[in-house]
Amino acid sequence: MPFPPVPTAAKREIRRAGETLASGTLSIGQDEQARKLIAQWRAAHLMPLAAAANDLNQVLEDCEVNAIVAQRTKRLFRIAQKLQETPTMNATTMQDIAGLRAIVPSMEEVNRIRDAYQATGVQNSEIHTISDYNDGPKESGYRGVHIALRHRGGIASAYDGMRTELQLRTNAQHLWASAVETVGMFEGQRLKYDEGDPEWILFFALAGELIARSEELRRGYAFADMSDAEVQADLMVVGQQINAIKRMHGIGHELIVIEDTQGKIVEIEPHTKLLLLDPSQNVLRIQAYSDESYDEAHDAYANAEQQVTFEVGSITPVLVAVQSPTQLRDAYRSFYLDIKPFAELIQRLLDNPN
Known about the structure:
CATH class of the domain at 11-173: Alpha Beta
Strand content: 15-25%
CATH superfamily of the domain at 11-173: Beta Polymerase, domain 2
Shape: globular
């Protein structure tokens, strides 16, 4: 089955549909036509995303790097939020509607992949920008490398110029980012975006700094004058104040995972999954689709989004793809409420930061 087509609507109509979604609240069902058009525009990114994944796999092979590789298309409510937060952006210039992530063991592999992209480029995309948050971390403590790509086919097509974003993270950085999202979900706060309890925000900023120093990265601006021992001590204090380690260990230990293959018998387990997490019930539902069922999977994705309010802590559907089903949990730890490895990492760094 072919990839979903690029909508026939003019770019200005797609931009207006994005503006309609962004003008409302977190509910995205106010204008059905706008929602459908943005969902179609999102689905069309599957083709350049697959091409970008092929390029990444070639780079990983050339660099002799083993990585967890995962793909996702951005949730409609996050598209709407991002357009609200960034008035200069529109739906046709958003670079991460389609996202690709490679999680690798260490900074040495991150740098090797980044350098390969910079030195030789890739076959199916042009590099638009490279944002190295390892060299200049965000205030939240986030680190990683983001490579913004524009698709270019061997033969001119409607997909040319469509954007994807590649994220490169170490295992430790991925544990940190997943923990921020998971705690924010349970606390009912947007900690990922520096909104919410200032003690949790400080905890994660300090934790990110301690992880960065263990990986020999540049210090964050807010902690530039602090010694390793001072960062460790401050993290220990704020962690005790909010009982962070114990609270994190209490998340997700009774999660119920229900997987549905849509009644289909397949010879090879599908790698495309629709994840629907209801943290209030501790239930994760996984609907699996064959890698060729693009339209069916994206229709189910859009339908699932219509059933929720998109408030913090609500059911949060997302459509993802992994190279191997065994990588699903590692790639999307926040949907499995799998925060224990991060808590254990922080405890080890507190006990022995070196």
